[in-house]
Prior knowledge:
By secondary structure, the chain is mainly alpha-helical. Helix content is 44%, strand content 11%. The chain has helices spanning 19-32, 38-52, 55-66, 68-76, 78-84, 118-121, 126-129, 131-139, 141-147, 184-188, 193-197; strands at residues 95-99, 104-109, 157-162, 168-172.
Amino acid sequence: MPHDHSDHEQPHALLPSDPALRVKALETILTEKGLIDPAALEDIIDTYENRIGPRNGARVVAKAWLDDGFRAALLEDATPVVADLGYYGRQGEHMVAVENTADVHNMVVCTLCSCYPWPLLGIPPGWYKSDAYRARAVREPRKVLADFGVTLPNETAVRVWDSTAEVRYLVIPQRPAGTEGMDEEALMALVSRDAMIGTALARQP
Length: 205
């Protein structure tokens, strides 16, 4: 096969080690070769970031806040519950929901790569795929949370869940006080992607 580079290096050998930089470098290489259309790529990214997710996950959380029966079913076996809402498919086949309470705060990481529930949360953020987050989330979760601006009471335990190719997790954040009477759409606005990973709390109304 002919190579475009005079030094005959494979394109992957030219990529930096940081995942976000690698993605950008790959995008540049593929664009220069005419293999991708940047405008089409941006549209795909916008779809997953804003239209497909994380609004899907936020809707699930809002329903759990409003409906105790739905919440119980979600915590018992999330996969069929979210599938009934139309949220299933690649990267979302086996879902487990975990609930934050005053006693326990849950946080999700993928220590081996970047397994992530795309149908519910959209595209994973760059920091989720970083070596630093993947290593530190398990070793020093409270410090990682502090880096995200989350300080928990000492009596609140932090539980870290390792997402895998077999199981992906959705964190149900605590419902903020003062949200009584708010409807599903209003509650959805309080639920961020990071809150459903466990690196943030739900927004205050």
